[in-house]
Design goal:
Shape: elongated
Number of helices: 13
Strand order of the largest sheet: 1-4-3-2-6-5-7
Order of helices and strands: HEEEEEEEHHHHHHHHHHHH
Structural class: alpha/beta
Radius of gyration: 57 Å
Length: 328
């Protein structure tokens, strides 16, 4: 796990570094244009190609063209981003320029006015640069020299970011401190006591993920082999047949039950209704009889029961009163 994490981190850093070194145009589709010049001094593969000062590509190859024409001795192969071809009219011209008096040389493309656009594989017309003595402004040159001298002086005195980086130690100290903090954080993260380090150094998380998967695989294997109720249900169709037969019998029983006379006709219901009506009438007649209409019968019955109770009580308390001997 540690080797994998380090390898992935190194690959990501390398990819970011390559992307930044190529200016973010590594994956952009390129188109090839050709430029014939008389002298390639200072121009080499990797030199910038700019359109009105905007970078659109680089010089890919510098070689002799084999031509005997003075202005077509060298052929430059230019790799230009394809989406920038629409920014280069067909009548555009190019010349070799430099960043300042002593700067790097690059291919400077000046946009034309033609409505048509240049296509991949076409040639850009070369426009020779004017002589330096005709275009150089001495005052401007002096001003640039003074500005360059002031910049170098600031660097020597340790002023500015570049001066602090070259002369001073503050930036170096801060950078080293930041790297030390990053290293300490990384060591704490991968230590055995931290959660991340515990995950990396031990196989506890691996077992937590692996064990449920193994258990699930084992259950599926048992089901597939016909073990257990689910496995038997999937492998053997007897339970399915039994359930189907039971469902068919239940459906037939329900059909037979619905076919009985009670559900088919209203005769039984009408008979029950007439019987209940007759029973209700008898109850009403009994309720309206003299036994329930007055309390005379109830009082007579109550008096008779009371006499029986008194007689039984006297018999239990003094049975001699009821014993008689007849002598003859």
């Amino acid at each position: 796990m540690r080797v994998t994490v380090v390898a992935v981190a190194a690959a990501a850093i390398l990819a970011a570094l390559v992307y930044l070194l190529t200016g973010g145009t590594l994956l952009v589709e390129k188109a090839t244009l050709y430029l014939y010049i008389d002298d390639a001094t200072g121009v080499e593969p990797g030199s910038a190609v700019r359109v009105n000062g905007i970078g659109v590509g680089k010089v890919d190859h510098v070689a002799l063209s084999g031509s005997d024409q003075p202005n077509r001795i060298i052929r430059l192969s230019l790799k230009v981003e394809r989406n920038h071809l629409i920014d280069i009219p067909a009548d555009s011209t190019a010349q070799i320029s430099s960043d300042g008096v002593t700067g790097d040389r690059y291919v400077d493309v000046t946009q034309g006015r033609s409505p048509g656009r240049i296509r991949a594989g076409n040639e850009i017309t070369f426009k020779p640069a004017p002589e330096l003595t005709k275009t150089l402004d001495l005052q401007q040159f002096t001003k640039q020299l003074r500005s360059m001298d002031a910049t170098l002086t600031d660097i020597e005195q340790g002023k500015g970011l570049v001066g602090e980086f070259v002369v001073g130690t503050d930036m170096y100290t801060q950078t080293r401190k930041a790297l030390a903090d990053i290293d300490r954080s990384f060591r704490e993260a991968v230590s055995a006591t931290a959660s991340t380090g515990h995950m990396v150094r031990t196989d506890e998380l691996y077992h937590k993920i692996r064990d449920p998967l193994i258990e699930l695989d084992d259950r599926l294997a048992r089901i597939q082999s016909g073990q257990g109720q689910m496995g038997r249900l999937l492998r053997d169709d007897r339970q399915y047949t039994q359930l189907r037969d039971q469902a068919a019998n239940l459906r037939k029983s329900i059909g037979d039950f619905r076919g009985q006379a009670f559900f088919a006709t209203d005769d039984l219901y009408n008979s029950w209704t007439r019987g209940l009506g007759s029973l209700v009438g008898q109850v009403d007649r009994i309720n309206t009889s003299s036994a329930f209409s007055n309390s005379a019968g109830y009082e007579n019955l109550n008096g008779t029961l009371r006499e029986w109770r008194n007689s039984i009580h006297e018999f239990r308390t003094s049975p001699g009163k009821f014993m008689r001997i007849n002598l003859f």
